[in-house]
Amino acid sequence: MGTAQQDKVPFYEKSALGVGALAAFFGYAGVSILAYPVYNMMLGVSAAWIGVALMIPRLWDAITDPVMGKISDNFHSRLGRRKPFIVGGAISMGILFALLWHVPTGWSDQLKITYFIVMQLLYFTAYTVFSVPYNALTYEMTPDYNERTRVMAFCAFFHKTGELLGGWMLPIATALGIWLVADAQELNMSGVQAMGWIVGVVIMLGIGSMPGLIVKERFKKKTQVQQKVKLWDSIKGSCSSPAFLILVAIIVLNTLSGVLAMGIDQYLLVYFMNNGDMAAGLIQKGLLTSGYGIVGFASIPVITWLAGKFGKKGSLFFVYGLMVFGGIMKWFIFTPGHPIFYIGKVAIDPIILIDPLLCGPMWVAVKIMLASMMADICDEDELKHDQRREGMFSAVFSWIEKMVVSLAYLGTGFALALAHFNPELGGAQAPETFTRMRLFLAGAPALTAIFAIVALFFYPITAKRAANTRQQLEDRRGTV
């Protein structure tokens, strides 16, 4: 079915909504990118305490995310339900992000980690105020099954842009520190603090406000007459939706396998493929990361076309099948002995670029498709409960995703411990250690992709069913 003209979202609105994903990426990932280099390497705080400090906000999110979802669903103003919170959250998030890195260096380790925890709680509260209404807004942009996918493709593009830019935060902070402190030759607090204000003001405050200032809300008037959304009823309603639970299972599987593989591959590149040569291994890791970025950008139009041609489930079946093959191929890709060519003194292993070609498309497809499928689920929820509760779905989904990411980072350390990896041995690890690490790297993505394919077989919403749901909604409450 083609998309009716009135269901199409204008390019400028797609763009304004999409750039919000750039702010959302830095809003969540920015802290984890800088936490260990700043608080451990520069300020000397125990890495174990930093890990605990990074987990504490996830417990706080379990309260604030659903509460924010309820507030956003029930809020009414001349500007809408979502937009005032998006702008207010972006402003407070940007300022608090900058202040995270202004801890006094003369304080004791206990005071430093206390400052970090308190500022994180304030900061992630502001992030919740921004992100929950923002995600809810993406779900309600259009009633059209295929246009939703195209809208989410814009968000995926800017999210992928954030991933590429995020890798430059530390190098730029180092360069700023050298410029601000003439005798400094490495990362220092002046550079970090300058980077904090640049990211906070330009990306979070400035760019993050654009969805709230430019994008239109479809349900601003319709929801003014609906019954109040209740917190516990909404959580139960979300978790009683089979389609929603299937998406939750998929994101849990993806995140766990992705973060595990992301940690293990770097160790194999350094210690197994380059015999402990950290410089050579990290160069190849940078090449691999760039490959994922390029493949991610190139995959966006392909995934969008596949979804229009074969449906959302069909496109996911394709990329997960590719992921199963890619997981198996990791066993052969991440091994020494490949042909090497040199650019100057830099050794390049082109075989490792097969990895992003096989596994990269899945990450873009999930970013696009799961958000688009969430919008379809919100329609079915309205048909069943006669309420628009995008905020609650956004809150529950967001918290689960953030919690799994935090747990997955712990899982990387657990996997290394099970493999009996000893950093003091460098490249002279026992052969069985590398074998176990390669099994983790290859097995995690392949097995989780198989489980995701199985889960998708039970996902009930098709294009035909979504169109029928929309027709019933419009017969009941009119076109919105």
Automatic annotation (TrEMBL):
Record GO biological process: carbohydrate transport; sodium ion transport
Per the record, the domain of life is Bacteria
Mostly located where? Answer: membrane
Any idea which GO molecular function terms this record carries? symporter activity
The entry's localization annotation reads: Cell membrane
- Show the InterPro entries listed in the entry: MFS_2, MFS_trans_sf, Na/Gal_symport_CS
Keyword annotations: Cell membrane, Membrane, Transmembrane, Transmembrane helix, Transport
**Which SUPFAM superfamilies does the record match to this protein?**
MFS general substrate transporter
Please give the PANTHER family that the UniProt record associates with this protein: MAJOR FACILITATOR SUPERFAMILY (MFS) PROFILE DOMAIN-CONTAINING PROTEIN, MAJOR FACILITATOR SUPERFAMILY DOMAIN-CONTAINING PROTEIN
State the similarity comment. Answer: Belongs to the sodium:galactoside symporter (TC 2.A.2) family.
Q: What is this protein called?
A: Putative symporter YjmB
Can you name the source organism? Answer: Pontiella sulfatireligans
Taxonomic classification: Bacteria, Pseudomonadati, Kiritimatiellota, Kiritimatiellia, Kiritimatiellales
Name the gene that codes for it: yjmB_4
